[in-house]
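We close this part of the discussion by returning to an individual protein. Part of our work consisted of pairing the sequence of a single chain with a tokenised description of its backbone. What the numbers capture is local backbone geometry rather than side-chain detail. The amino acid sequence and the backbone structure tokens for this protein are reproduced below.
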Amino acid sequence: MDITAATLHTVSDTLRRWALDEDLKARTMADPALAAVAGRVAARYTAGPDVDGALRALESVAHRGHRGSIECVGESVRDAGVASQETEAFVDLAERLGRPGSPRPAPVPTLSFDLSHLGSLVSPELGLENASRVAQAARDAGTSVMISAEGSDRTDLVLDLWERLSSDFPETGITLQARLHRTPEDLERVLRRPGPVRLVKGAFLEPSAVAYLRDSEPMIAAYHRLADRLLRSGHRVSLATHDAALVEELRARHGDTLRDDHVEFEMLQGLGTALLDALQAEGFATREYVVYGPEWWLYVLNRIAEHPERVLLALADLGSSASG
């Protein structure tokens, strides 16, 4: 049977719907057998369930010459108590990274998170309060935070809270998605503040009225226009992509500008490793993003959905785990 592009697109959309299906997530993770199977698939894309594994991964990242970013992955918290517990986990992580005499990569990795992980869906004020606590802990540790992108229905909330947070913590970064039709206007808004901008393609399931089809020519063109604007501005930018063809196009368009102090390439743990290492060896600034924690559902399914042929890797991981 031939697997067509249309079939792969359907698989990708199905995975993205599953990523957003909180009932499916709850049922899967509540079943010990299903949770164990799902966890074996997740192991390719995360540093494991606890912070110790993540810190070991960060040491490896630094040894390979990359800057680091770390996230205790999670999203869509709708209970204030849970949001407070998750906030404490990030504060503890920042304190651990900044503890004098403790083994850690240098420079200190940045902390990334979804605002909805810290309670923005409970109330914007709670999300801001908790994010401020993490930002202060990160500052005390000698680093900063990067706010992650969420679905387009949350973009206004994310940008509004980021602006409020960056009033007190101007070093705070923000993530923009090239897929969204609205992003050029959002970028002009973001450029009025000094925090770094992480430019990603965008992984969420979005209607065509809101976003370009992922990896379509219009989406790639949109990424280039946004990168052009950022690079011309001199603003700090993280070009976050695992797409080797896109990286080559960026290099052809911008040449040695990509070696300037305000520019870096960023890739996720377990994705684009060889490409990131090659860029670092050529003298480009590079960053690898390490994630850990039990709440990996949305993150991992979106990683597989980006390239639905990774479903085969997931099956191979299950097979190798079973045979081991």
